[in-house]
């Protein structure tokens, strides 16, 4: 007390003790609950990883079946929410829609407002949020096309059901390719948690005031939207397309990013914590090559991305500052290959990050952490006498 340490951007301030995600930025290591991201991306499913993050251990067969079954009972979203949803302009940004819709769940499912929910009641809130989020994301996608929404089908697992609601048609049964289901699982797993980043810290700090889970997650979605955070995946593709349409002169754009008089940054490069290759980027780059090959897609934007990476990684500006490609650099190319429009990319990041946000919110509550309330160093005026308006 009395003495306040200033740490803008919390570059060196630990805000909590956590046992969810381990990250070593110098070595490029990422683990969820002790399991390496490489193993989880290769061998697990998104739902299993969600369970792991939220409850601390990989589920048994019975636990995962129960989890899937319960979620499938709560995938429907209150029909009255559609009236609210219908009011959004069809071209409004999907992230604004997502944040508002998730916050409005607190009005449609008000039992979540009680900060003293029992463990069973809180588990049900978690199940509802996981189930309804996938449905809401698919609604937003369908709206962008002007197509009717598709209702959830409980015979499918979590990710397959999401893809059905997204790419399915009312007029006919659509078969979703296994390659697509695998890629989606992998992408969601890689985004599932990343310790105390901007959106997760937001979720924890909002929840620390005893605010309900839905509103806390909605705040996290808003934090994720920014192009310096999750919004980078949209910004990367927009940048790559710009470079392509500008004649593909990668050097010119690298120089622009290095110019301190130019606010342009290479989107998808650099990270607050990783001073080495982002391990998620490595996995995504490989998955990107695989999926484009399997789907027989030749995306010229991928060539630009690879050239850009090569130039940036050998340029002293990027080497000295340890600016490596991050998770957002290649993910957009996969989302594009799967058929998602650019504006949906950050919404998909949010769907992946949801279990991490829930796990972090739950941990914060279980640790009985105090309300988050940073201090400041005041640098404003002191002791001014009020001057009547006619004398100013
Ligand atoms: N292009 C050009 N220069 C950069 C870049 C970049 N992408 N990123 C950092 N720098 C420079 C920056 O100008 C500064 O240079 P100097 O020391 O000469 O002033 C130095 O590198 C350190 O950068 P910083 O802004 O102090 O670092 P930070 O930890 O505050 O910011 C970051 C991290 C991720 C916001 C930043 O690297 C950035 O803006 N990257 C582009 C946006 C992006 O890809 N964001 C996604 C991050 S990963 C996923 C996620 O968080 O959701």
TrEMBL record:
<dbReference type="InterPro" id="IPR024176">
    <property type="entry name" value="Citrate_synthase_bac-typ"/>
</dbReference>
<dbReference type="InterPro" id="IPR036969">
    <property type="entry name" value="Citrate_synthase_sf"/>
</dbReference>
<keyword id="KW-0816">Tricarboxylic acid cycle</keyword>
<dbReference type="InterPro" id="IPR002020">
    <property type="entry name" value="Citrate_synthase"/>
</dbReference>
<comment type="similarity">
    <text>Belongs to the citrate synthase family.</text>
</comment>
<comment type="pathway">
    <text>Carbohydrate metabolism; tricarboxylic acid cycle; isocitrate from oxaloacetate: step 1/2.</text>
</comment>
<keyword id="KW-0808">Transferase</keyword>
<dbReference type="Pfam" id="PF00285">
    <property type="entry name" value="Citrate_synt"/>
</dbReference>
<dbReference type="GO" id="GO:0005737">
    <property type="term" value="C:cytoplasm"/>
</dbReference>
<dbReference type="InterPro" id="IPR019810">
    <property type="entry name" value="Citrate_synthase_AS"/>
</dbReference>
<dbReference type="InterPro" id="IPR016142">
    <property type="entry name" value="Citrate_synth-like_lrg_a-sub"/>
</dbReference>
<dbReference type="GO" id="GO:0006099">
    <property type="term" value="P:tricarboxylic acid cycle"/>
</dbReference>
<feature type="active site">
    <location>
        <position position="271"/>
    </location>
</feature>
<protein>
    <recommendedName>
        <fullName>Citrate synthase</fullName>
    </recommendedName>
</protein>
<dbReference type="InterPro" id="IPR010953">
    <property type="entry name" value="Citrate_synthase_typ-I"/>
</dbReference>
<dbReference type="InterPro" id="IPR016143">
    <property type="entry name" value="Citrate_synth-like_sm_a-sub"/>
</dbReference>
<dbReference type="GO" id="GO:0036440">
    <property type="term" value="F:citrate synthase activity"/>
</dbReference>
<feature type="active site">
    <location>
        <position position="328"/>
    </location>
</feature>
């Amino acid at each position: 007390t009395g003495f306040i340490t200033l740490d803008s951007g919390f570059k060196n301030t630990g805000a909590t003790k956590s046992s969810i995600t381990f990250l070593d930025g110098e070595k490029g290591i990422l683990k969820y609950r002790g399991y390496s991201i490489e193993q989880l991306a290769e061998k697990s499913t998104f739902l299993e990883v969600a369970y792991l993050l939220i409850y601390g251990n990989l589920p048994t067969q019975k636990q995962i079946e129960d989890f899937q079954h319960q979620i499938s009972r709560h995938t429907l979203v209150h029909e009255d929410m559609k009236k609210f949803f219908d009011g959004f302009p069809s071209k409004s940004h999907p992230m604004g829609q997502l944040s508002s819709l998730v916050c409005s769940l607190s009005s449609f499912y008000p039992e979540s407002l009680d900060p003293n929910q029992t463990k069973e009641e809180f588990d049900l809130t978690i199940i509802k949020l996981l189930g309804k989020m996938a449905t809401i994301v698919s609604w937003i996608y369908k709206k962008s096309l002007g197509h009717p929404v598709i209702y959830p089908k409980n015979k499918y697992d979590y990710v397959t059901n999401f893809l059905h609601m997204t790419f399915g048609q009312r007029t006919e049964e659509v078969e979703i390719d296994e390659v697509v289901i695998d890629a989606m699982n992998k992408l969601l797993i890689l985004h599932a948690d990343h310790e105390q980043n901007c959106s997760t810290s937001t979720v924890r700090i909002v929840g620390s005031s005893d605010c309900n889970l839905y509103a806390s997650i909605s705040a996290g979605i808003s934090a994720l939207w920014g192009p310096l955070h999750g919004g980078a995946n949209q910004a990367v593709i927009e940048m790559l397309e710009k470079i392509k349409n500008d004649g593909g002169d990668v050097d010119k754009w690298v120089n622009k990013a290095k110019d301190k008089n130019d606010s342009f940054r290479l989107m998808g490069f650099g990270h607050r914590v990783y001073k080495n290759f982002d391990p998620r980027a490595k996995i995504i780059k490989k998955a990107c090559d695989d999926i484009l090959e399997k789907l027989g897609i030749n995306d010229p934007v991928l060539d630009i991305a690879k050239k850009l990476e090569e130039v940036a990684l050998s340029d002293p500006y990027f080497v000295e500052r340890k600016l490596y490609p991050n998770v957002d650099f290649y993910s957009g190319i996969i989302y594009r290959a799967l058929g998602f429009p650019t504006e949906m990319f950050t919404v998909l990041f949010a769907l992946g990050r949801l279990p991490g946000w829930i796990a972090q919110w739950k941990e914060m509550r279980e640790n009985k952490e105090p309300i988050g309330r940073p201090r400041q160093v005041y640098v404003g005026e002191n002791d001014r006498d009020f001057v009547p308006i006619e004398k100013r």
